[in-house]
Amino acid sequence: AKKHGKQRSVWFEPVMEQELKFRSQLENGIRAGIAAGEFVPFYEQQVDVESGRLTGFEMLARWQSPALGLVGPDIFIPIAEEIGVIDELSECLIVQAFRDAREWSPDLTLSVNISPVQLRDPWFSQKLLKLLIQHSFPASRLEIEITESCLHDNIASVRSMITSLRNQGVSVSLDDFGTGYASLSQLRTLPFDRIKIDRSFIREINNGEASSKLVDAIVAMGAGLKMPITAEGIEDEAILETLQSMRGLKGQGYHYGYPENAAGVIDRLREHDLL
Ligand code: C2E
Ligand code: CA
Ligand code: CA
Ligand code: CA
């Protein structure tokens, strides 16, 4: 047994140690990166599917890490939540986004992703209102995106949070719809302004009649609930054409362009004579 133990330690410990070390380097890097302003907003176009008209941008967080390069949110958001800095991180991104979006045409909206951890804070809507006022950004241009996983939490408090955000003039969208948590009965009682169909459904839309019928059904459900639909993950012309046969959709995805930084957005707006 002793021998085994020894072998085990020789084989496993260095790997685990390395992982722990990497993890704590990441944590420290994130903390330091917030202070150093390494977290920046990128933006993805949101478009009216039928007309192709640009309606706004979704802010997507990026970490310009000196050590790691450009890091995506799937890596650092969960860690920021765990180590308790998501509030701080989100605030610094939102403030940058308000500044950026003030340079755009005032009828373009700004969508911001909010983590379930933030939504659990009973003061969240107050804090957001304070930021809106401090940076004189109109609430009517702001759209909050919350994922279905929020609906895991106490549904009454989620409902009252949505309501108080909407009373402030902010719109609230249900993100990643169809990936697992929202039940239809919950949807009926939650006052979302919009539903965003997860890109896994959109990607499959031309692969068999069942796939497009499913999206059709979600669009019809949205119409019934008076919650307009956004299709995310539009990657090519063929997907776009199928979606254009459905009424009233907004869309986003690589077909319209990859997420880009604030300067890229300004170039894009000039290109389209929107600036
Ligand atoms: P999401 O809100 O569903 O954002 C869409 C993700 O899909 C983005 O990935 C975007 O770059 C990617 N995407 C856009 N169009 C296409 C497409 O046509 N095809 C494919 N395959 N992917 C596409 P990203 O930027 O890596 O963000 C991942 C997730 O991280 C987001 O998913 C969002 O839930 C979260 N996130 C991003 N920024 C923030 C933030 O500031 N705060 C919080 N809490 N979460 C954030
Ligand atoms: Ca989103
Ligand atoms: Ca999404
Ligand atoms: Ca997602």
UniProtKB/TrEMBL annotation:
Residues 23-273 form the EAL domain. It comes from the Bacteria. This is EAL domain-containing protein.
